[in-house]
Task: structure prediction
Amino acid sequence: MKTRLFVLIGLFFFSTITYSQQQVINAAQKEKALQTPRELLWLTLNKTTFFPSEYLYFNGYLLDAENLEASTVSQSIYLKLVSADESYSEIKRVSLSDGVGSGDWFISSDLATGSYTLQAYSQWMLNWPESIFEQEIHVINPYTSAKVRTEEGSISISSAKGTSHHRFEIDLKASYTTRDSITLNIRKTKEGSLVSRPISISVRKVGELVEPLVNLELAKTIASKLGDTIYKPEHRGSSIRLQLNQDYINPETAIITQQGTNQTFSKMVTEGSTYYATLENLTTDYPIVLQEASKVSLENLVTFESLPSLDKKPFQSSFKPLSEDQKPRLLQRSIYNQIENNYFEFRPDSVIVKPAKDFLSHLPSKEYNLNEYNRFRSLKETIREIIPEVSVNNYRGTETVAIKQIQILPGYLPALLMIDGIQFTTSEDLFKVDATLVDFIRIYTDPIVYGGKTYAGALLMDGNSTQANYFKTGTLVPESLLSASPKKYYNQTHLTDSNLPDFRTQLYWNPRIDIASKKTIRLTTSEVKGEYIVQIQGLDDHGQPFYEVKSFSVN
Result:
């Protein structure tokens, strides 16, 4: 089945304050910065030891350091994974909603066996590095030569650093068979009545390795002073920083669009030679493209600046050598993960949640599936012969697409013409596109304001190739600079795929679940036998982390 790309394009122009990374400030700006609440961050994780092809799932709570309520300052947080020897380092950006943001980190086979530190912070928190969240994790890669020590039968049921009260009762049987149904009942205790925030629940296999302790302590805030150079908070959505070669690119006519999503992006604003674009609620499921109306190739003309990085040493490794007789069991675990990845189409780990925001959703439109018609040799013939709402007229000696208007507009206005988020400034350029590359066309006959200009309707097309020539005039925003797409995590059942192999060791993950008084969760075991735990993590109403588990076996 062919994937359809629904394209929404928006670049709205408004004046805004720029929020860069590190900037020099004067005395007045420093005084204002000191009035901005400081922040703390705490993460829940599905576990602390990982194998290749597994996911590190997380949920982050960004707090006001003064009252430990949800912070209203920053709209993004950053997670940095760095190896103990600092040979590996990678940063991920996460957007927040009401001070909470969740996501996942795929553990690739490139990560060597060893100890890593997960560091989490907002850009504003970089002014006080001691306040960041830190958690040691281990990676076990059986395909590398490194070794770690394991202890037989050691289950990390209470592997938490800090203290916790008994806030929830977890009801389930002591043992289950493979491919068995589990009814998990979770009830609040008297102490649990103080928990009104969403909590995270992880059901997973344990017992193969001693895992790093779960960090259950908020970082300490120290009354350190701000310097003359500070990191500013990101009050808006995620922002990208870039430098343009202005000999070829006019920032006033440059636009940013995204395939397959319904997003709106702000106008680029400048501070010196650096430009900023704030991308509200962006996702990474389809490419984001920077274009320029002059149609020059942007390759080597745009430089994107990296995400704000924390300069703090990782934890000293707590990793220990592993005896050789444990390697077959660990290899088996990795084989299970590879098999599960092969059946991702039938049992996805997660499903990307499409944003509901659509700047054209309030306007009527009509869609044409070109595969239901006889194909024409050119896009001009396709438009003229198939779509009655559109005509191709001769305007000042040039053939131009015209959309029949419900409202009569004064003078001549062009139509907005786009394929997969790429704007065509002339009909002549559009007609050069191979007609076989376009599958769907949507017509908007109402006037449209886009990028500060008014258009006499829109002709938005979905293509079927990401390698089309029209993409070459733009440059992709690196995915590493974007926030992860919001996801809904999959709860496996055996109702429809009982004949497929099932070697899951992570049976359930929900990063944000509300429990008023009692919650019933239904899930199933896999074919992997052993010891499992139900792990509940969250923050209570006093902003204090808690971690509770209950074990069961699969035989």
